[in-house]
What we know:
Radius of gyration: 18 Å
Number of domains: 2
Shape: globular
Oligomer: single chain
CATH superfamily of the largest domain: RNA polymerase sigma factor, region 2, helix turn helix motif
CATH topology of the largest domain: Rna Polymerase Sigma Factor, Chain: A
Amino acid sequence: xxxxxxxxxxxxxxxxxxxxxxxxxxxxxxxxxxxxxxxxxxxxxxxxxxxxxxxxxxxxxxxxxxxxxxxxxxxxxxxxxxxxxxxxxxxxxxxxxxxxxxxxxxxxxxxxxxxxxxxxxxxxxxxxxxxxxxxxxxxxxxxxxxxxxxxxxxxxxxxxxxxxxxxxxxxxxxxxxxxx
Length: 180
């Protein structure tokens, strides 16, 4: 994915719109998942995806190759998400995606149990401090290494390891309370 993405980025730098469409298809799921996990709003996540791809179109030539392409792309996404969160703080909105999802009834008991486990995990993840929640998402949902995460969030690698450790401990405590 990285090699193909880099080749597409080179073509985008040259103004190839078809390359941007291919790049979009290659990375859209990852960028969308990352934004959705942070915003908890599918419409806002889709907007962020489009904003990120527009930024790629405009800034493709700025990629220097000092990090992996996916790290650079998630960095752009992270800043767009942070901007969106700042906007929300200025003008609070009352949207609760969890209530919308709770209205849908899964067809099988096993799926219901899995959804309940996922809901418990989401509940506990949402209660983590922002820094811990962010590194957990990057480590476990985006499958990034500690060094990449440190680059992305602009902090020392040891801080990332510490945040992951404390987040895991907090998740264990929270989940054990919910399971009692």
